[in-house]
Design a protein that fits this description.
Layout (H helix, E strand, L loop, with lengths): L2 H20 L1 E11 L12 E11 L4 H11 L12 H28 L2 H4 L1 H18 L2 H14 L2 H16 L5 H6 L1
Antiparallel strand pairs: 1-2
Helix pairs in contact: 2-3, 3-5
């Protein structure tokens, strides 16, 4: 591999590391009912206003990854394979119906992050609240962009490679490597 290509890979790796460390911010616009301003605002009917809220997804801890993995295991996309176009769309609608609430729950878990474990009662309430908001407000195009980041940031590849490394070091590590190299 030439030096220029190696430098490009290092730059990409550094950029990816910086993105994962900082997390990803996303915003959603949603409609809420608010009271009208003024002294008699509580007597008047509520009005619907648009608000924008910002959220951040950080790299998940092992505990958060474990909670999310339970839901990810339920996703079955193999139903779409080998179907003709008309049946594939029906299957896609069925998947959307079945898994959209679970997807919103995963996003909520990732936003709450490890704060969930500091106070599990608050964590459950906050996760449920955010899940409801995300279910009603996030668009499919946003879900795709967030899924790309989540797959990068969750560190699943690093986790699996660490597990493989631990397993290999217990069973296949040579006992005297220095002797092998000197021969």
């Amino acid at each position: 591999m030439d030096k220029k290509k190696l430098e490009e890979l290092e730059a990409q790796k550094e950029t990816l590391k910086r993105i994962v460390e900082n997390g990803i911010k996303f915003s959603i616009d949603r409609s809420v009912k608010t009271r009208q301003k003024g002294i008699l605002g509580f007597l008047r009917p509520k009005i619907i206003t648009q608000i924008r809220e910002e959220y951040t997804i950080q790299q998940p801890t092992l505990g958060v990854l474990d909670r999310c993995s339970v839901i990810w295991l339920k996703f079955k996309l193999s139903e779409l394979e080998g179907l003709e176009d008309s049946k594939a769309m029906d299957a896609a609608y069925e998947l959307a119906h079945r898994h959209s609430k679970e997807l919103a729950l995963v996003l909520a878990m990732l936003v709450v992050g490890e704060s969930y474990f500091a106070d599990e009662e608050w964590g459950e309430k906050e996760t449920a609240r955010l899940s409801d908001i995300f279910y009603k407000a996030i668009k499919p195009s946003q879900v795709f962009d967030l899924a790309l980041f989540i797959n990068t940031a969750n560190g699943m590849v690093d986790f699996v490679n660490s597990m493989r490394l631990m397993q290999m070091s217990e069973t296949t590590a040579p006992t005297n490597r220095i002797d092998e190299w000197s021969e």
